[in-house]
Amino acid sequence: MSSHQKIVALVFSVGLLVLIIELVRRKKLREEYSFLWILTSIFIFLLVIWGKLLKLVMNLLSAKAPASTVFFCGIFFIVLISLHFSVKISHLTNQVKDLTQKLALLEKLLEEKK
Question: Is residue 95 in a domain?
Answer without folding.
Answer: no
